[in-house]
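hey can u check if this looks right to u? its 309 residues, i copy pasted from the old doc so theres a chance i mangled smth
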Amino acid sequence: MRAVDAVIARRLASGVPLVAEVSRYIINSGGKRLRPALLLLICGALGYRGDQRFNLAAVVEFIHTATLLHDDVVDESTLRRGRATANENFGNPASVLVGDFLYSRAFQMMLDAHDMRIMEILADATNVIAEGEVMQLMNMHDPELDEAAYLQVIRSKTAKLFEASARLGAVLAKAPPALEQACADFGQALGTAFQVIDDVLDYAGDAGEMGKNLGDDLREGKVTLPLIAAMRRGTDEQRALMRRAIEHGATDELDQVIAIVRQTGALQVAREAASAEAQRAMSAGAQLPANEHAQALLQLAASLLQRRN
């Protein structure tokens, strides 16, 4: 990861001071670096030791960071990872344009691999992520959203880059098709579990630990699995209150909605869904050669279920 950070620092260089300043602000804001770590661990498990793993790990972090910059503008977010968002600090125009810079820099860096398969994987991933963002926008404030539509969004918006990161590691290692697919399946399941737990924490977490405001999803009109499960399990009166809150992003009823989500057992439903995805990841990961890197991947999948931030 130190080698990846060195690549990131070098490739953030720009002759435009604001580009470098905003990029450094968001890159250095304490992210988990899960996608680069996933790529590095897959490479380690499959025996690839070339420097291109550091370059592509930086690429996926740049793509992820670009999506965060754009997300926070769309969601009008003010807090991420315990600090002011880039759009809060620098304004929406700077955030959008620096996000564009990070996307284009990532595509420049992809060329270093001299591999059209890598370009194909990353081009497809960025397109699917963009589609997921639009699907989520269309689903805003919709109390009728079901679990299938919710999963379609998070598998596009969040899990796709996890899937691509894992697949890239396999491609670098020249893994056979079946093993490459197992790595991709691991990444997709891991990313899905990660997002479901993230959505659980929006109703069950601690704002101080998470570094963002509790109930942000409801405030922004996002209908996530805890809400979907609560709508299914609640009384008519509870459903009516949640419907109003979803349709209007009603912050004055936030405490009541959080209480209903907790009382109906909706959080347990969502945690069980995340656990099923983590188990799916571990089943796929079991196809990797037995070594310390593969073991770390299995531990990573298991650890998601204990997330607190």
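The chain has a mean pLDDT of 92.
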